[in-house]
Amino acid sequence: MPLLIYGADLHDEAVELTIDNFVYLIDDTSWTEFMPAGVTKADFARFKRYYDPEVFSAAGRRIRQLARSADKFTIEERISRLTALFSTFRNPDKETVLTPWRVVNLHLSDSLGGYCFMDERFEHPLETPRHIVRSGVTDRVFSPRSTVLEINSKSGLYPLYAAYSIYRSRLDEEWCKRNAIAPDRAKALWEQTLKENIFVVCKTPMAVAITKRTLLRLPHGGSAREILPRSHSMPHPFRPKGPLRSPRRQRVLGT
């Protein structure tokens, strides 16, 4: 449930998320995807009386406040705070729903390189990510001229790793032109990376909301090029709007 609370799309953040309105904020497809197998909304309505409503509301308020407060910090600090929040979430019934940030870093840094937010033993998070280079791979995959497609995002952590690694490549290019980079310029480069380099496909509307929340600040200052719900009936679940320019190198992340 914490992941659903994190991604719940409340048009008015002043509206409190409660044990009573929680079910109505989650569409049926997302409920099936994220909740334990066999637990229907009707089942939840029957056993919700065993939850303390005040504790539920307080926990939900804290999750959303922590996510919102992360938006006030630098890109690196925001990533550290959001991923620390993710580390408190558990989904033992469906472990594939939420791949831990540690595993995301281990998987992608080992195969593709890029900027890793874990120490060399992958035991502790780093405040300053370390750059890992895989010869013949890293520079090609995480280039400002590449496009990365995540084919089944649920938490947004895999595209977050890819976006930051490409963002840093774009930042390095900017450093060659300028002596300093202002915070607003860094934010603009991040938004440019999401717009031009990161493509995401999601199976459910809630996965869309969670992924957007992970990648974007609120209110959304920019948007990923495509974050689309995926229908099982679609033979080609993802098509970007308009043709990609030929110089771009396309890479696919599968989770």
SSE topology sketch:
Elements: H1 2-7, H2 28-34, H3 41-47, H4 53-70, H5 75-86, H6 101-111, E1 114-118, E2 125-132, H7 138-141, E3 146-150, H8 157-175, H9 183-197, E4 198-202, H10 205-215, E5 226-229, E6 249-253
Parallel strand pairs: 3-4, 3-6, 4-5
Antiparallel strand pairs: 1-2
What does this 3D model show about the protein?
The protein is built from 10 helices and 6 strands, in the order ααααααββαβααβαββ. It has helices spanning 2-7, 28-34, 41-47, 53-70, 75-86, 101-111, 138-141, 157-175, 183-197, 205-215, and strands at 114-118, 125-132, 146-150, 198-202, 226-229, 249-253. Mean pLDDT is 84; it is low at 220-226 and 230-247. It is an alpha/beta fold and 255 residues long. It is elongated, with a radius of gyration of 19 Å.
Features:
single chain; 255 residues; alpha/beta; 4-stranded parallel sheet; two-stranded antiparallel ribbon; 43% helix; elongated
